[in-house]
User: Fold this.
Amino acid sequence: EYLATKIVESTFFGLVGLAFLRMLSYSWPMACFLAMIIGGGCFYLAQNSLKKKAILRRQRIKRSFAAAIDLLALMMEVGGSFQESLKVVARENRGHALGDELALIVNDIDMGKPRKNALENFSNRMCDEDIAEVVFACNESEELGVPIAQTLKTQADRIRVKRTSWAEKAAQEAEVTLVFPSMLIMLACLVTVGAPFILQGLSQFSGPQ
Assistant:
């Protein structure tokens, strides 16, 4: 629906651009070409904006996902069912993107959808490797009869370790990236400090003998 709306909007802007270009006495071929660029540009900007919002939303969910899994496991260890515990976690994350996603899972289960399918729908919406692994592990635990609370705690620990490794790798890459700019800054400082002495030496060397 969003993309269809943006296609209509882009077509509208393209037609408006075409009319405006014709008012400026552009030829029909040139006006149509520029109008197509205007419409295509509007659609590209809308898609790019949506993609950036989706990436930011996914990052927000991943940052809170491990803590939510821990809370879910804790609720189940004290006797709560998966659905009841999930409702509590969704309520605790109300107003957050993760809370919205968990509420969708709860709603799917309340509507009679199997828990496995509800979790797989969540995984498909997120398109994230870590979340897909957690969903797969939960479904496997259900089929094998393994306590799901223990599986959730294990997956939460794994995500934390993976996040720490990613942060260390990002820090190392940032350190390498900063080497060249640091060298340029140091060189600029040396030139700034030594320039007066260099100019003075050159003036004395080129002065009258």
Observations:
- The two ends are 84 Å apart (CA to CA).
- The chain has a mean pLDDT of 81.
